[in-house]
Fold these 2 entries.
Entry 1:
Amino acid sequence: MNGGGSGTIRDSYKTLAAWLENAPPDLLQARSRQAELFFRRMGVTFAVYGDEESNERLIPFDVVPRIIGADEWGGLEKGLKQRVTAINAFLKDIYGPQDCIRAGIVPADLILTNPHYRPEMQGRRPPGDVWCHIAGVDLVRTGEDGFYVLEDNVRTPSGVSYMLENREMMMRLFPDLFAEHAVRPVEIYTDMLLRSLQASAPSGAGEDPTIVVLTPGPFNSAYYEHSFLADKLGVELVEGGDLFVNDDTVYMRTTEGPKRVDVIYRRIDDDFIDPLTFMPNSAVGVPGLMSAYFAGRVTLANAVGTGVADDKAVYTYMPEIIRFFTGEDAILKNVPTWRCREADALKEVLGKLDELVVKEVGGSGGYGMLVGPTSTKAEIEAFRAKLIADPDDFIAQPTLSLSTAPTLNGGSLSPRHVDLRPFVLSSPAGVRVAPGGLTRVALKEGSLVVNSSQGGGTKDTWVLDN
Amino acid sequence: MRIRIDHSTRYAYARPARFIVQMLRLTPKSCESQQVREWRIETDVDARLRRSEDAFGNIVHSLYTERPTDALTIRVTGEVSTVDTGGVIRGQNDRLQPGVYLRDTRLTQADPALVEFARGIGEGGPLERMHRLMGAIHGGVAFEVGATSATHTAAEAFAIRRGVCQDHAQIFITCARTLGVPARYVSGHLNRSDGQHDQDAAHAWAEAWIEGLGWVGFDAANGICPTDNYVRIATGLDALGATPIRGTSYGGGIGTLTVALHVRPVQQSQQQHQSKGWS
């Protein structure tokens, strides 16, 4: 077994390796079956788009933890804070003076005609100038030289419930393993989130602001997570119909009458959040919500319009954006990326489509992408036509040799490719990172796609204390 | 010219609505071509109005009713002095860069037919091309009430070559953006030269950003640039963004909407009489 790509065991895995040496041979399989049973009973599911067979499916859980050493995490944490601080400054600037456009850091048209840029937000300042309250940053390791950022998720990133559930499961299944490792707790995430949302409340909200989680409803693929988080935060889970806006103030219907709402952790996309400002036929939003928001009487987490920062084309400018806003070089590197909107880059990409990963700029969840090395000739040619028709819509990246982590495969352990999504919280009180994250694992041998919608699984992520 | 406007919108609900929320973009702002002399919004039921300004520079009133109601009338009345600036808009403080108005929206997405039509305008300076574009739409898309509805896209209206001012404006905007010229939608009122003061609906036209000149109006439905007969009310990326009233009712069911609009010039003698009174 190994924790890297080089065939050697990372230091952080040594205790685990020794423990496994002494464990009975079928222990992991037995624990794995137990885990599946627990998850089914708890109803932890995830709806998979395009899967006719079952609307809701269990995401496979791998019982072998992914372990990150203290020093390594220290570097990651610093890099994540730097990156999210820069993203918040970038959003404040884009919706404010637009200095970074004037300075030539990002092209004006890329921002102004970006589908995720919201002109409605121009000149607005959310409470405390915090735009991205919750970020999920996808990282991969490609070797000993550290982590690369694959993408930033700053709209409504999901997956944090798996980070928390997986830990709970592991503590239940392997209490003795925790006794041998100093694993930093991820359970503090919900407390961090609550404090962060409280600190982001509008100025008139008082000492104990009312917070709600706004969900599109049970048909959403992440509904389980929405209800899970509301429960952990100790706040109401509401749908659009449970809220209304009167006199530029948001209220929640309760059995004791209307109650003012100060902070909305919303898991509804911008387009659907207020039918009187955005898509008029949205049935899941709150009519007039944007008026209350513009009047500064409610906080939306995340702010409206943050998607312009996690657009895959804007991603390619992140190293420059970080330098411009923090004055420092980016600690976490970007994956080298070809911007297909640039003629030279497009030419190069078309010349080696079979080697590259090509992604749609506005896509997410592993949809609409081409993984050259594992695609058929026909698939590549079909994608080539799409790319030529709309080069602006695509970026391309080299196929990375992602690091692997030991993963249970039948009765034994095999290396499988993994990524990592840590969660970063921002509020006027500062930027914090939960010590852990969601490790996604590509369960098929050789596969590089870890998205749960594409058959990936998850692992518990251990960050070791010093 | 001085233009007097009296514009009523009446919503009659199928059942009493417990509560009504609306966003009103019914109030003009002054700029070089128009001076708002007086303006008021009235409702026939008790309602709170909160005034603000949106990113597009429009004055927005959020309307919230105070008690259940089965009908609601919003009446705006006012008077605006206008001068003919050849369609050029100046004296506005734009929060958005012109480049924002190159975005496409669901209603103004170009299809191959519109792209081909726009490219057929031929070469030339942007101002010249916009004039030709206006002429081509005016000549090629018949004005016909009832052929389209408010939710028709530019491409849909263009496909049948028929529509009302909203469609002409959206087709113009879509083509202008295709040609790389920022363009926006304007809702407003037209003092008709044929003396038809009672009108069925408000007017709409487009504005294009001409480098060095600024925003210039183009009324493709009438084939002319706005004159002192035009009063601008609101602008947006498309008709939806400049909609005079967007609202929702709680419990009102499906109702009916009636618009009464009266636009007329204030008589010269009356003007002199009034101005005497002020001096």
Entry 2:
Amino acid sequence: MMTASQTVKRRRSIRRGPGYITGSILIYLVVILSALVCLLPFVHVFAKSISSEALVAARQIILIPHGITLGAYRKIVADASILQAMNVSILMTFVFTALGLALTLLAAYPLSRSYMRGRRTFSFLIMFTYYFAAGIIPDYLLVARLGLLENFWGLVLPLAFSPWNLLIMKTSLKTAFPESLEESARIDGASYFRILWRIVIPLSLPILTTIALFLAVGRWNAYQDALFYIKQRTDLRPIQLKLYYLVIQATESFQSSESVVTVQTNPDVLKSACVMFATLPIVCVYPFVQKYFVQGIMIGAVKG
Amino acid sequence: MRVSSLPVIQKNLSRKRPSGRSIRSYWELYVMLLIPMLFLFVFKYGSYFGLATAFENYKILKGVFGSEWVWFDNFIKVFGHRRFGDALRNTVLLNVLDLVFSFPMPIILALLLNEIRQKSVKRVTQTMLYLPHFLSWVIVGAIAYQLFTYGSGVVNDIIERMGGDRVPFLQEDTLWLVSYVLIGVWQSMGWGTIIYLAAITSINPELYEAAVVDGANRWKQCLNVTLPSIKPTMVTLFIMRLGQLMGGSFERVIALKNVATNEFTYTIPVMVYDMGLQSGTSKIAQATALGLFQSVIGVLLVIGADYFVKSLGEDGLL
């Protein structure tokens, strides 16, 4: 089999004429260009964020920073409300991820066992909510009813249990922890809770990492619910919502430690720095954890 | 001995529940399930009670259970709203355009990526291509404004330097629509390739060998082997996208809209938000009705597409 495909490859390469080479060049060109289109906007914003305000105002900065300064970042760090929003985001993401992970695991393990009575009914009840959403207003009324408006937990509890993540986890557990293995643990007298803690978790660390990353990135980036539920308590705004008011709506100004924002302050530099500041946690971690995301997507694709 | 016991084991694994396990022996599994199900019932099914307001003359003080039942009055009112037509048109327009342009891009990119043999080039380009997926819509919106605003966007600076006129990419109605769609393509094209690349790697290499023997070049192989092999994946993803035809991302629209354009930014989710949460409580019931309309259409679209695809002989989704 291996040798067969190798001979094919060799045969393919022998038959390549000039048309093949032109084709290859075109393919590389299109792929590399697409990749650059994805990266360059980011490089531009980064370059702006560390360049001197005068040069940015004069539109001299395209991809390479000039007159490098961290002034904009210093202003951000001096803005207590941005730091507070960052704190809220970090705490919210941690609590949400931990809770979501626990809930997903607790549901996925029982539902991945083929002998469990009623698992189809439970699965249906869960997936039904995935396809049929109640909508913005009923969600809002519920959160209000539970007293979670203007409340940190309003950003954590409602979305913590996600049917989609459950589906991925369940699919993966069927192969990661086969029932024959479970059987032998049972014969040794282990309780199901012990099995979950001692065998299922260690065996499914890769998929648990994947789910944790899905949860964390999703929570970090979402701001719709915060926009709905956090109106008065500005100290509870996550960083994305803060950015929404600051950069997109521009209804708020930067609060610097100086009493008045000086005339020379170029909002573009500050906005760029803000964007970088809020994305940094993801961009730093992302190249290293990319494979876990890809894995999760592929498991999810098995059942669709 | 080994040979004779094999069928028995297989039978046990595939068909029958292992006879030794009664519910009493695995009751712990139900206890585990209890907590997630509690969350499900409180936060997901709890929301469904709120749907009742769509059929009520909802008064905050009387609550969901005390308000007067008015059947379809709210639906009639909201469908007759002067901006309902706009919202419906915009929702369908934005989502259809998004589907038309965002759906094929990952397929094309995946086919191209598959032809790249150098591992390092492939890995680096993939990492770059996935990046936009990890940015929130607020960030994407902020970056878009840094690039495309009429006054100070860098793309406009470059256009001007090359002797062209500045273009109001985000500040004119039709151009906004184009930008909205292209930004969506930009954000999703790389990430979308993952599923297709996975599907491509699972294609039987013998199919390619046979194609080569028949004299198929790279283009023909792609057309006659790769594309038919990933068709089921394409169909599944297409059905899932169809379900969103009536929804679409609220976050995306509000991150990209601005005061200069409102022709195409008024979609159903935006209308629900405006009616229900932005203008007091008098229209909450109508907003709920509108949201329910949206959800029901979404479910019907998924079921319909699934039925249609199955009738064509493909594997469905449900």
